[in-house]
């Protein structure tokens, strides 16, 4: 079973389906690493502003998009921004590298992915960056579920995509008088229902 790592999910699954193996969804693990990177960037930028170094703080703020993106999808300008961050803020660049190694582990998968994940978790534990040592504790706590994902476990991808489409339908359904109308629209659009036209 694929889950997003929310604390309440695991006890419920253990109670209702004790035979199920929980896999931690890769997207959510990488997203959590990205959130810790954002926390670190905000903290460092605040410290720079407090020290009267507003230009350096602005560089960190301008690098937000580059820090969040997959390394393979960076534009030349974003690569330049990252190079500047590597020189001016070593802790932030180290956090970026940790986040990208976590992403890479899920791309590699299998035994190599597990080895990479163990290595990056150990790196995060000893990096002396509070945001990433906290992330390392989370990765260690969910290690079995992450390894199950790396061994070919399921993904939340389809469910998340359907959630986005249902949210779009909810926006369109604001004028409906009942939830039943919205549920019927979801079934009609995504449930494979194809009723006969009354006009034929």
Mean pLDDT: 86
Strand percent estimate: under 5%
Please state the overall shape, judged from the principal axes of the Cα atoms: globular
Label the structural class. Answer: mainly alpha
Radius of gyration: 22 Å
Largest sheet: 2 strands, parallel
Helicity range: over 70%
Termini distance? 44 Å
Number of domains: 2
Q: How many strand units?
A: 2
Number of helices: 11
The largest sheet has its strands arranged as: 1-2
- Model regions low in confidence, pLDDT < 50 over at least 5 residues: none
Give a verbal description of the structure.
With 200 residues, this protein is mainly α. α6 packs antiparallel against α7. Strands 1-2 form a two-stranded parallel sheet. It is globular. The protein has 2 domains: 2-150, no CATH class; 157-190. Helix content is 72%, strand content 2%. The mean pLDDT is 86. The longest helix has 25 residues, at 26-50.
Helices and strands in order, then pairings?
Blueprint: E1 2-3, H1 9-16, E2 23-24, H2 26-50, H3 54-62, H4 64-68, H5 76-88, H6 90-108, H7 110-126, H8 130-141, H9 143-150, H10 157-172, H11 179-190
Parallel strand pairs: 1-2
Helix pairs in contact: 2-3, 2-6, 2-8, 3-5, 5-6, 6-7, 7-8, 10-11
Summary tags:
two-stranded parallel ribbon, 200 residues, mainly alpha, 2 domains, single chain
Care to give the gist of this entry?
The chain is mainly α.
């Amino acid at each position: 079973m694929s889950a997003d790592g929310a604390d309440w999910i695991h006890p419920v699954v253990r109670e209702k389906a004790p035979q199920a193996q929980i896999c931690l969804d890769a997207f959510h693990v990488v997203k959590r690493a990205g959130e810790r990177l954002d926390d670190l960037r905000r903290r460092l930028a605040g410290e720079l502003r407090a020290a009267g170094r507003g230009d350096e703080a602005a560089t960190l703020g301008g690098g937000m998009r580059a820090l969040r993106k997959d390394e393979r999808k960076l534009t030349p300008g974003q690569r330049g921004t990252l190079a500047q961050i590597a020189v001016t803020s070593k802790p932030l660049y180290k956090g970026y590298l940790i986040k990208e190694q976590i992403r890479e582990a899920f791309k590699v998968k299998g035994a190599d992915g597990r080895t990479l994940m163990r290595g990056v978790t150990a790196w995060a534990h000893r990096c002396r960056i509070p945001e990433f040592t906290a992330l390392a504790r989370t990765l260690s706590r969910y290690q079995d579920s992450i390894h199950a994902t790396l061994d070919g476990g399921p993904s939340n991808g389809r469910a998340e995509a359907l959630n986005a489409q249902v949210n779009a339908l909810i926006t369109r359904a604001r004028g409906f008088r009942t939830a039943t109308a919205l549920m019927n629209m979801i079934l009609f659009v995504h449930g494979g229902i194809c009723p006969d036209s009354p006009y034929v």
